[in-house]
Amino acid sequence: MKKIWKALFCGTLAALTAPVLPVLAADKAAADTAAPALGRGTIAYVPLDTRPVSYDYAVRTMRDAGWDVQVPPKELLSSASQTGNSDQIFEWLEDQASRAVAVVASADTMLYGGLVDSRTHHYDEAVLASRAERLLDLKKRTGSPNTYVFVTIMRSPKMSSAPAEPVYYKEWGGKLFRQGVLRDKQELQGLGHREKKELETLDREIPKDLAEDYYGRRALNLKATTFLMHGVENESFDYMLIGRDDTAPLSQAHNEARDIATIVGNMPRGQIRFFSGADQMGLLLMTQAANRLTYNYPFIYTHYAPGVGPDTVPSYEDDTARSSVWDHIFSAGAFPTRHPAKADFLLAENTPYNGVTPEANWPVNNGVIDRHKDAFLDYIEQNVKAGRQVIVADTAYGNGADKALVKGLFQRGLAYKVAAYDGWNTPGNSLGYAICQGILSPYMSPEAHKRMLETRYLDDWAYQAHARQDVAQSVIWPQGLPAKGLAGEDLQKVEQAVTESIVKTAEPVMGSVVHDYTFVLPWQRLFEVEPVLKTK
């Protein structure tokens, strides 16, 4: 694809807190007519685990944009039924790295086996130190020219259970969460008399061995993460992302994140980022690698839905929408701009009008297009008709799409004309995916681009915002089935119900294309679905 030089002035970049670099950007006229470039190079990618958002969706997006992405065999990676095999994954990566133009690796996988494994492992410090050293030495030993690493700060959810957390979390998770909230608040603001008494009670009630296991693992993981961060300073890593997994403004995860933030603040800003989220980081770094390798650094202007907009602090996160947008744009190897006329892409972020992010399955997500949503859709439509590349990040709800927004996109004939649409899990997850898939969309064939959007509407809207709750209410609860750990006939029964519910929702809006897919629960639970395109 033809490129043209864009001059970036020092003053502008200083305002954006980004390094001063000469930047190449794609010529839009050429992009409209050129076929997607193929065989751009090999990226060796180690995901968090085998979930579709970590593995299949990320890999497919990059491959559709012309990159040869190599991934470890799924039998080595963390899944619903197994722990990731870090030692064998290291052997795979060291072999692949010598032939790749870039390496993008999850440190959670390399050190612990995967994201869930990072919360439940029993490795001692010597094992983790050895693996961390091996990851730091990867670039030197293999000669890999570009190495990108991402790692998470362990989450501290209000409630959860095995296997996503240690087995005791089902009984004690709520109290551990509250203990973390009070300890964090004590350091930041101080506690009132009642809160001090509550914390003292929690400290007595929570069994000592349980607390030692929980906080000991967290401390060990933080030590390993801090050690890996030196890879940025000594050029073992070209770029590092640190994600705050499902955090909140007051929590144990937020407490630990403050210590990491201090270290990050003393490091080169153009080589490390720290923000809320986890599942989007692999695709973000692969997109950055692709942009750097092709000297393509697009400018992105952000338009927020009416209301609180950029000052929204979404559920599961502890930063404003504005801060998150900038971090995600930089992490993808792009640059934010305050001038829409200079932008290569327009990012339309659907934030809640009142700044409160409810769950997608709540009654308030009723599909009614009010005047605020109408104005947001007007913005998208006007710019699509003007030939602009519009990226839609649907972050108004947690764990699913805004029904009114998707309804409006289809009613106005915009659903397949936007560069990207994403609205699936936490706002940061959706934002990161939307930015990456939007940036990569000009390199995709029209068919691949359409399939990408179909997948997102089927997953984020038809399943997450509709079928997931429908199946829980009509099948899981009445029949006493588990929401996770499904197997055998129970799994088949639930997957059939999922398919019927998705078809019922999507076919009247999307048409017969819904029948091109089968719908599976890849981790044998209701939390995620994977639309799989049928072979013809």
Describe the structure.
- The structure is a single chain.
- Helix content is 47%, strand content 13%.
- The protein is α/β, with parallel strands linked by helices.
- The strands form 4 sheets. A 6-stranded parallel sheet has the order 4-3-5-6-7-8, sandwiched between helices.
- Helix 7 runs parallel beside helix 11 (208-233) and helix 14 (321-331) runs parallel beside helix 17 (427-440).
- The longest helix is centred in the C-terminal third of the chain and has 34 residues, at 446-479.
- The model is unreliable at 1-38 (pLDDT under 50).
Q: What's the story with the biggest beta sheet?
A: 6 strands, parallel
Report the count of strand segments.
Answer: 15
Q: What gap, in angstroms, lies between the N and C termini?
A: 31 Å
Poorly predicted regions are 1-38
Number of helices: 19
The helical percent reads 40-55%
Our estimate of the beta-strand percent is: 5-15%
**Overall 3D shape:** globular
Please tell me how large the radius of gyration is: 23 Å
> Average pLDDT across residues?
90
Strand order of the largest sheet: 4-3-5-6-7-8
Derived from helix and strand composition plus strand pairing, the structural class reads alpha/beta
Provide a brief overview of the structure.
With 536 residues, this protein is α/β, with parallel strands linked by helices.
Question: Main traits of this protein?
Answer:
536 residues, alpha/beta, six-stranded parallel sheet, five-stranded parallel sheet, 19 helices, globular, disordered N terminus
